[in-house]
Design a protein that fits this description.
- By secondary structure, the protein is mainly alpha-helical.
- The protein has 3 domains: 7-87, Tetratricopeptide repeat domain (Serine Threonine Protein Phosphatase 5, Tetratricopeptide repeat, Alpha Horseshoe), CATH 1.25.40.10; 93-160, Serine Threonine Protein Phosphatase 5, Tetratricopeptide repeat (Alpha Horseshoe), CATH 1.25.40; 162-255, no CATH class.
- It contains 14 helices and no strands.
- Mean pLDDT is 94; it is low at 1-5.
Length: 255
Amino acid sequence: MPVVPDAQDRSIAYAHQALALDSNLAEAYVVLAARLLYTDWDFAASERYLKRAMDLNPNLAIAHYHFGWFMMAGNNVDEAIAEFKRTIEIDPINPFYTYNLGGLYAWIGRYEEALTEARKSLELNPNYPPGLHVLGKAYAGLGRYDEAIEAHKKGLAISPGGEHRLGIAYALSGQRDKALEIAAGLEKINNKWSTWGLSEIYAVLGENDKAIYWIEEAFKRRLDFVPWFNYNTYFEPLYDDPRFQEIIQRLNLPE
């Protein structure tokens, strides 16, 4: 029985077909660039396609979104923020772009700014789960743990999944048993995205060996955001761990 390609493989095939018919389709270059950036980790090729897309259509918000994450992969924080702000300028009523800027701020530990952007995304859509996630992460980073837990619980009630975010809030608030209970549930699921959540929970709990194990699992499964683990504040306890640095070095991140 032939193997049916997954949705991502089909989208890549369609993008190549579209470019064969018209080499000036900016959206098709973005599709190819996203695959190269998040799955193949071919940063140079992704950069070329994204720049081509933005040359063809400077007002294509999704191209600036991906280019922002490309810049962040090289630790070019100011440039990444500028790209994400550009997406909001282009598409100001889309909560995705506002939440994403907040997510970057939370990722690098700028929690007050993350809180501001999370609130903006929720003004656009009060029941937007990603906005609630960033809201919870920002609250937790600011030590407002009860509000963080409430935000994460609300997000999970709307859209199940991402339970690790609540687990991290529990861990940061000192509720170790509740954090470990969520981690145990994620270990039973053991899917691609649970690897990320488990690595974060265990890193926050100070369980460095377990955190490294799940980071390695995330790498093996080519989790989308592995190239950005090096800038995740939850992994600060691991930054000087040779095992963590060896994983990061395998990525050959852009400069």
